[in-house]
Design goal:
The complex is a heterotrimer of chains A (364), B (272) and C (553). The two termini of chain B are 27 Å apart. In chain B, strands 1-2 form a two-stranded antiparallel ribbon. Among the domains of chain B are: 95 residues, Cytochrome c-like domain (Cytochrome Bc1 Complex, Chain D, domain 2, Orthogonal Bundle), CATH 1.10.760.10; 92 residues, Orthogonal Bundle (Cytochrome Bc1 Complex, Chain D, domain 2), CATH 1.10.760.10. Chain B is an all-alpha fold and 272 residues long. Helices cover 50% and strands 1% of the residues of chain B. Helix content of chain C is 59%, strand content 6%. Classes of the chains: A alpha+beta (364), B mainly alpha (272), C mainly alpha (553).
């Protein structure tokens, strides 16, 4: 852009704001250097139609150079240095990608650090260079642009109204109610049909929320090791462990409702409303699925006999039927009825006697 | 000194003072908060009557005030110790929880008061009163051959709800807390599972077998040693610290950059 | 130069076919006012672009499948553990793809920054009154973008199917299930059956990579187009009126600045991706419904919901064989619902109360709209209390506060703190206004002391300079509400009945300000030469009862 101005044309401060200014001189000076033929691009631009900011500026709107030229020279070097650092960092990124291996935790640490730091440096150096460029190399300007009221002129609005009404009349939409009404009637089913297409997103819940996979005789096995338990195994008062129904270790859908906490108490600690018939040897089983929102409520405090759910701090008293003593849960944890099978292992006497987990509308 | 005073009105002077102050406070805080227990793995325990009587002496000096002369306990103050076993004593004393400094919601770990020999002596004495779980052997806590994957599965199902995914610790009710497991020795982890200290449940050897305890120990000790491949771990707590970094780090930095970009362009200055 | 000729050639080619010269010139000359707070929206915009870029990379490697496999990959602590393909592919990206962990971390940090920036931007718009006519539509678009961002983030961090995010999905299922009448159907339809099922990860995936980004992109485009078309607002100052924009043109200034900002954002996110570990799913382990960790929280932008769930009491009705689980669906739907609905309605409520239907292009200094600022701070305080409650177990652990006490404090603070915040902020704003009036009346202290002949010392003050005067004097001068219709003696339309009385009293509260000194100030909408601000209620009169809880607007 700068080559259209003669080299001896000074930067001028009074061209900073858009506005009319004397414009005869520069053209003359340029005309002397001109090769006869097509006008200079600067002059050609003045032939553009008026923009909304006012009459097309005949002179520069933006000065060509900043005021502080020596400072600009220093800034130019700083910007160039920044961009060079960025380039080197970019190349470094590519090199690090090739050099650094992954597949172990330590290798990934080094690779991630190297790739990330080089990428960060590449971008940050670009950014720093660009900012110094704007602040020190581009001349300081403040321009003003006029706003126009956003609402359309009354003429335009009237014309719009006229066109719209003429079109509405021509379309017969208003005048022929039968067409209008049958059209609306036709679009309604088509519009709501896609909702029906969503029906097969999933099965209906029906009664499935009321039951778990626990049945009479299902053995309790330890989560993770799938070992069944006898009361003799689980005989230390203050013990608490996660158990699941045998055979369902790989079935997450079943476990999401069937996970159970087994707790061993000392004699005499269990009270009503714990159903003592459902306990074996002061071993009691409660659903692990919190009745608030379904997180595993498994934090058991041996000293206070409290089961705390870590999600929203619902707390249940394990000696009193897992009754709620704090927190947003509104129902106690269901108790799993226990008994011993013929071999002496702990098994379920039946399924939970109430739906497990968070409340739902159909739960009575 | 004049170098500092001549720059006291420098634009960055305030920030420098603030930074210095923060560094000093941080260093002070770090120096006064201790780590967890520091005892090393237990050497083989041989019990003899000399050890038991030494333990008895120490017990009378340091423990009987709360636990009673015969370790029968004092209601509302300290539980009875008959039958808790050497493992429980070793855990409590080697982590410094016992002797307790004051009665509170929970006894935190602190630098141990008794050394290893003394600890084993007291443990032998308590074991002589009523038996109970023994101190695990080195072989039991060695993690060679451990199934770390199983350890992880057991840990997240039975331990993480108190101690957090990787054992960074968590809150319990009424001022209690599950301590972080960053400094606990393999022996102490084993003993804690075995004896169920304070609010922690008991995981006896027939529920979580010694092999499985070893797997859990292997998982905990392995994961806490593991490097953080993504950078600083931010405490391994999860989204809370991540969100703080996003707001107070990233967003704040971008605001500062924005202030720089849109600041009025420098008037003619003689330096950059 | 030949570059110029080449550029002209391309330009002419396009212009001959697409007619762009005038329109693009207008665009290149668009003036952008300069203020750092105007760049907050750009943080969100560029974070979104970075999300698109890094996200595309991740889609090349991620497998959105919940089928179970046994892991035999590079991360040894999980050797032999059963997990979903989604989780295994995330481990693969983290440990077996060069740059994979970096892309994952940049993606997640960018998501956090996106939401934080939207939050900051929205607050800036609110406190400066930039949502007023003609920008209400953009404000609504912004609220929709905020909501979409929340959902997008929730789905995004749930895709790896790890223990932490799986617990979050469990909570989502519980919330859906609790909704009366349709809850169980919604839950079963979303998850394709009982929780967890096999469908949720692939379904979230397509919503996360296609549908929601498409919507966000379209809305961002509309948001930016409207902003450029209406021209940006500007802070009050010398030479700045409601009818102009003062600043620097798009080309080359603003382009360079915004480009630089993009590089900074990308750079800082890359720095975070290199130095700060985020979402270390290998430490959480794969999701299994029996496991749980202490200190489980969703990402911070969901923190308010989490806090609401923790703070709400255990209220439930079982009536006629049906359960109304208030303890679940009320905290899940009501606070956020109130927040977004209130925010969406706010520009129109303010218009109704003040009767101000003019275009506003000059921003308010927050102190000059004391009631609006106080309400905003009150809402933020309520939000903040719930947010802190969402992390209450971590706070309890680290600051050694009793766990239950944190919830009990939050249950009280969520009502009390916003009221206190409103009162305190209002007083601070009015105090700052008094300081401004003092400056206008008495001028700036010069530090020059003079002794009068009578012996007393005075400090010389200089009148405020023009630039500062323009800022100090800028006020939205509200027109008084029409009380009586001039033709009849009937109350004016809009002022009738009880609603009219409410409107009148609210008007007094909302427009309460310290008036400018006589002879100063032309307001922002001055047409006649009247220098007085509108006869709004003068400070010193009693406040009307401040709104409770910050949720009334």
């Amino acid at each position: 852009m700068s080559d259209t101005n003669g080299p001896d044309e000074p930067a001028r401060g009074d061209d900073l704001t858009a506005g009319p200014a004397a414009s005869g001189e520069p053209d003359e000076g340029q005309a002397r250097r001109r090769v006869i033929g097509t006008p200079a691009p600067a002059q050609a631009r003045t032939l553009l139609p008026e923009g909304p900011g006012g009459p097309a500026p005949a002179v520069r709107e933006l000065p060509a150079d900043p005021e502080d030229l020596p400072g600009a020279k220093r800034a130019e070097r700083a910007v160039a240095a920044s961009f060079t650092i960025s380039m080197l960092a970019g190349l470094g990124f590519i090199a690090c990608y090739v050099i650094f291996r992954v597949h172990t935790v330590n290798n990934v640490f080094h690779s991630n650090l190297a790739l990330g730091l080089t990428m960060a440096l590449a971008f940050l150096a670009l950014g720093v260079g660009a900012v110094i460029w704007v602040r020190r190399l581009m001349p300081n300007v403040e321009l003003t642009e006029q706003r126009h009221e956003l609402r359309s002129t009354p003429e335009n609005k009237a014309a719009f109204k006229k066109t719209f009404e003429e079109g509405a009349d021509a379309s017969q939409f208003v005048k022929r109610p039968l067409i209008r009404r049958t059209l609306i009637a036709a679009t309604v089913p088509v519009a709501i049909a896609p909702i029906f297409l969503l029906r097969d997103l999933g099965p209906l819940p029906e009664q499935s929320l009321d039951h778990t996979v626990w049945k009479r005789g299902t053995r309790l096995v330890l989560f993770g090791t799938n070992r069944p338990l006898t009361p003799a195994d689980f005989n230390s008062p203050g013990s608490s462990v996660s158990v699941i129904p045998e055979g369902f270790a790989d079935n997450d859908d079943a476990l999401a409702k069937a996970a159970t906490t087994l707790i061993k108490f000392a004699p005499g600690q269990l009270q009503k409303p714990t159903v003592l018939n459902w306990t074996v040897d002061d071993i009691v089983a409660y659903s692990k699925i919190c009745t608030h929102l379904g997180c595993p409520a498994a934090l058991y405090e041996q000293t206070t006999h409290h089961i705390l759910c870590p999600c929203h701090q619902s707390t249940f008293d394990a000696t009193r039927g897992a009754a709620v003593i704090f927190g947003p849960a509104s129902r106690p944890l269901p108790q799993l009825p226990l008994m011993l099978n013929a071999e002496g292992f702990l098994v379920a006497r039946s399924d939970y006697q109430e739906p497990v987990g968070p409340s739902f509308w159909e739960r009575s | 000194m004049s170098w500092i005073t001549s720059r006291r009105r420098h634009p960055a002077a305030g920030y420098a003072i603030l930074l210095l102050g923060l560094l000093l406070v941080g260093a002070l805080y770090a120096s006064i908060t201790g780590g967890g227990a520091g005892a090393t793995a237990a050497p083989p325990v041989t019990v003899n009557s000399a050890q038991i009587s030494q333990g008895h002496t120490i017990f009378l000096q340091d423990c009987a005030t709360c636990h009673g002369m015969g370790a029968q306990g004092t209601p509302g103050v300290a539980p009875g110790l008959i039958g808790v076993g050497a493992a429980a004593v070793d855990f409590q004393v080697s982590t410094g929880r016992m002797p307790a400094a004051e009665l509170g919601a929970e006894n935190p770990d602190k630098p141990p008061v008794l050394n290893t020999t003394q600890t084993h002596a007291v443990a032998a004495y308590i074991a002589s009163l009523g038996g109970g779980p023994t101190i695990p052997t080195a072989a039991q806590v060695s993690t060679s051959g451990a199934n770390v994957g199983l350890g992880q599965q057991l840990f997240v199902a039975d331990c993480a709800q108190c101690h957090n995914f990787v054992g960074a610790g968590g809150a319990l009710t009424n001022g209690k807390f599950a301590p972080p497991l960053t400094k606990t020795t393999p022996t102490q982890i084993y003993e804690a599972m075995l004896t169920g200290p304070e609010a922690m449940p008991v995981f006896n050897d027939s529920t979580v077998t010694p092999d499985q305890k070893r797997d859990i120990v292997a998982y905990v000790t392995g994961v806490r040693k593991e490097a953080n491949p993504g950078g600083f771990s931010l405490g391994r707590i999860g989204p809370v610290t991540e969100g703080l970094v996003a707001f107070l780090g990233l967003l704040l930095f971008m605001v500062l950059v924005a202030i720089w970009i849109t600041a009025k362009h420098g008037k003619t200055k003689t330096h950059e | 130069m030949s570059t110029n000729r080449a550029l002209e050639g391309v330009g002419t080619f396009l212009d001959d076919r697409l007619h762009g010269a005038r329109g693009i010139r207008i665009f290149l000359r668009k003036i952008f006012p300069d203020h750092w707070s105007f760049l907050l929206g750009e943080i969100a915009l560029y974070s979104f672009i970075i999300l698109l870029l890094t996200g595309t990379f991740l889609t090349l490697f991620f497998q959105p499948s919940m089928s179970t496999i046994t892991y035999h990959g590079s991360y040894l602590p999980l050797e032999g553990v059963k997990m979903s393909r989604a989780y295994a592919s995330t481990l693969n990206i983290s440990f077996d793809v060069r740059g994979g962990l970096l892309m994952r971390q940049i993606h997640h940090w960018a998501a956090d920054l996106f939401m934080a920036a939207i939050f900051a931007h929205m607050i800036r718009i609110f406190f400066t009154g930039a949502y007023r006519k003609p920008r209400e539509v953009n404000w609504l678009i912004g609220i929709i973008l905020f909501t979409l961002g929340l959902i997008e983030g929730l789905f995004g961090y749930s895709l790896p199917d790890d223990l932490l995010s799986g617990a979050g999905l469990r909570i989502l299922e519980g919330v859906l299930q609790s909704i009366p009448i349709v809850g169980t159907y919604l839950a079963f339809f979303l998850f394709g059956g009982p929780f967890p099922g096999n469908d949720i990860v692939p379904r979230m995936y397509i919503l996360h990579v296609l549908v929601i980004p498409g919507l966000i992109l379209a809305l961002i485009t509309a948001h930016l187009f409207i902003m450029v078309f209406q021209k940006h607002t500007q802070m009050p100052g010398k030479g700045r009126t409601n009818q102009n924009v003062v600043g620097q043109p798009m080309y080359p200034y603003f382009m360079a600045k915004t480009g630089a900002y993009f590089f900074f954002i990308f750079g800082v996110l890359a720095l975070a991706g290199a130095l700060a570990q985020i979402n270390p799913v290998w430490l959480y382990g794969p999701y299994n419904p029996v496991a749980m960790s202490a200190g489980s929280q969703p990402d911070f932008y969901m923190g308010m919901l989490e806090g609401a769930l923790r703070v709400f009491p255990a209220w439930q009705w079982v009536v006629f064989g049906h359960t109304f689980a208030f303890n679940v669906f009320v905290p899940a739907l009501v606070p956020l619902g109130l927040l977004f609905t209130g925010a969406a309605m706010w520009p129109f409520i303010e218009q109704w109360v003040t009767g101000d239907k003019r275009e506003h292009h000059l921003l308010d200094r927050p102190r000059n709209a004391p009631t609006r600022t106080a309400i905003g701070i009150a809402v933020i305080t309520a939000y903040g209390v719930l947010w802190a409650e969402g992390a209450n177990d971590i706070l309890a652990d680290h600051f050694q506060i009793s766990l239950y006490l944190t919830t009990q404090i939050a249950q009280v603070a969520v009502f009390v703190a916003p009221v206190l915040a409103y009162l305190i902020t209002k007083r601070i704003c009015l105090g700052l206004q008094r300081k401004d009036v003092h400056l206008l009346e008495h001028g700036v202290e010069t530090g020059i002391i003079r002794q009068l002949p009578s012996g007393e010392f005075i400090e010389e003050t200089a009148p405020v300079d023009d630039e500062a005067r323009a800022v100090l004097e800028s006020r939205t001068d509200y027109e008084p509400l029409p009380v009586i219709d001039e033709d009849s003696d009937v109350p004016a339309p809009g002022m009738r009945g009880a609603l009219g009385k409410v409107r009148s009293r609210l008007y007094n509260v909302v427009t309460e300000s310290v008036p400018l000194p006589a002879g100063n100030g032309h307001g922002q909408h001055e047409v006649e030469g009247n220098g007085h601000a509108a006869p709004a209620a003068v400070s010193g009169g009693p406040d009307d009862a401040p709104p409770a809880e910050g949720s009334e607007h």
